[in-house]
Amino acid sequence: KDITPIKEKYQNDFLIGNAITSSDLEGARLELLKMHHNVVTAENAMKPSELQPTKGNFTFSGADLLVDKALAEGFDVFGHVLVWHQQSPDWMNTTTNAAGERVPLNREEALKNMQDHIKKVMEHFGDRVIGWDVVNEAMSNNPPNPTDWKASLRQSNWYHAIGPDYVEESYLAARKVLDDNGWDHIKLYYNDYNDDNQNKATAIYHMIKEINDRYAAENDGRLLIDGMGMQGHYNLSTNHENVRKSLERFITLGVEVSITELDIQAGGNHEQSERDRVAQALLYAQLFNLYKEHADSIARVTFWGLNDATSWRAATSPLLFDRNLQAKLAYEAVMDPV
Ligand code: XIL
């Protein structure tokens, strides 16, 4: 079978990325990764719990190895993630009360922890990365009123400790690092899933719009949030027309959009019927048609894993390459979506 690199097929459209662990940078996995992709995201290595497990003790060695090896192999690196409610250490935004219960930390301390983490991590990786997921998954999945984004925020530890402005404060801290160091080319992203859900997409839209409008008014029209990351963890009930509506809504914000964690669950038990294989390929084709149509606004399309065996959702065979690193029908669909 003729295997054309995905990154070649889309070279005039957007970068093609993948999520990596250290084993993806060796042997046959590295070969496949390199053939098809030009940018990588650390699947776990740059998360807060990895980088600052206890207060003030930064553990950069694992992430440094990964990043430097990826750069040496010719990949761009995208930074993931600075402020999140998962894979983040408890000390950042909670404390133990007299009764021994975990309660939110006071605003001042939590804000300082957040700002310190952002500054230290961003300055450490510097311009080895092309951008950052600054805030991840801040929005709830069922916004009570999508136009009221503050009331729609996830009730996370960050939210409870700091309040709804933790989102804006994160970007202000990250922007300051870029300004202080002259790293204008590094993009600051907001990243979230269920991006095809119109209520959630609407709430996110209003959040970015309000934060960016306020900043622009005081900063000569500059953006505070540069990009919207649609994670794209889809399944066979995802309707690509909903993905279209969200994508087109985000584009009207004037930010760049990237697809940051694409996979499509199809099947279970590490098995995929012919029917699921075909349905999965069809949805990949519909999505890449859509992405190509909006290539002017899309910077990057990143898959969340190289092959089905090592996916975080391995049981549902969500990727383009199978257990033996062989291209699936989904790969053919991405390469010939029309
Ligand atoms: C996932 C990783 O793939 C898993 O290995 C880990 O156990 C949990 O996190 N949204 C994100 C990613 O932003 O960081 C998550 O990655 C998947 C959902």
UniProtKB/TrEMBL annotation:
Residues 1-337 form the GH10 domain. The active site is at residue 261. Coiled coil: none annotated. It comes from the Bacteria. Belongs to the glycosyl hydrolase 10 (cellulase F) family. This is Beta-xylanase. The chain holds residues 365 to 702 of 956 of the full protein.
